[in-house]
Amino acid sequence: MGSWGEFSAWTIVEAMRDLIQGSDRLNELQGDRISNLADAARETNVFPMKNVVESPPFPLRNARLWPLSVAAYRVLGEAGLIPKNTELLYGFVYTKVSKSPFHSFLLQFLHEALSLRLPVGRLLRTEQPITCGESEPEPDLAVVVGRKEDFRHDHPRTAELVIEVCITSQDYDRSKLRAYATANVKECWLVLGPEKQIEVSRQPKEEQFTEHSVHGPGSTLTSSALPEFSLTLDDLFVK
């Protein structure tokens, strides 16, 4: 491998531009070469453009947006050029909502309940990515087929069950349903804390779920994807 003296700042800009577009040059910049490219970009101050031109606070009207590929999102994240508390949805990077105590309680309750009923051959993942086409959301909980060793080098590309806990993020989490349906996730639960309800989406087809239901206090919900897992909502939402 050559030294970084071979690369001008313009070469670095061009290479990172190609990474963002997800072009074939990504295959030429694998492994240490990508990491070194990102290091050189930081050393030459290629990326801190906000010191030169102020970015607009929102997308400009009628302006074309430039979505990121999953590969580019990972590379830029590993290089420290994208904040950690983010996720990729439909080619765009979103900051995840901070967690309230109530959110953490519901998440812990559901994690413990699922752990006790997890069938053999299934893995419970917490706030870890699922690759869904041009998106890489990080659901609060996901049950996938396989062992942890199966995902040493790549994220799951589908799931049996996904659970999102929603305290103030209901609309944001509903927007992920298309991504989960695209990845053929069998079942999604949106746990609506303030409403004391769970919205269930099932039967993915053509980038959408075809079956929806809402469950409230006094009901017991059983997962169709994991029949071993049943939940009494009064236990979950007890004051």
Instruction: Provide the helix percentage.
Output: 25-40%
- State Rg: 21 Å
Order of helices and strands: HHHEEHEEEHHEEEEEH
Strand line-up in the sheet with most strands: 3-4-5-6-7-8
From the spread of the alpha carbons, the general shape counts as globular
Number of DSSP strand runs: 10
Give the low-confidence spans: 1-15, 22-31, 44-55
Biggest pleated sheet: 6 strands, mixed
The class by helix and strand makeup works out as alpha+beta
Between the first and last Cα atoms, what is the distance in angstroms?
61 Å
Report on the architecture of this protein.
- The N terminus is likely disordered.
- The chain has seven helices and ten strands.
- The strands form three sheets. Strands 3-4-5-6-7-8 form a six-stranded mixed beta sheet. It has a two-stranded antiparallel ribbon with strand order 1-2. Strands 9-10 form a two-stranded antiparallel sheet.
- It starts with 8 loop residues before the first helix and ends with a helix.
- With 239 residues, the chain is α+β, with helices and mostly antiparallel strands.
- 27% of the residues lie in helices and 22% in strands.
- The longest helix is centred in the middle third of the chain and has 16 residues.
- Helix 1 crosses helix 2 and helix 1 crosses helix 3.
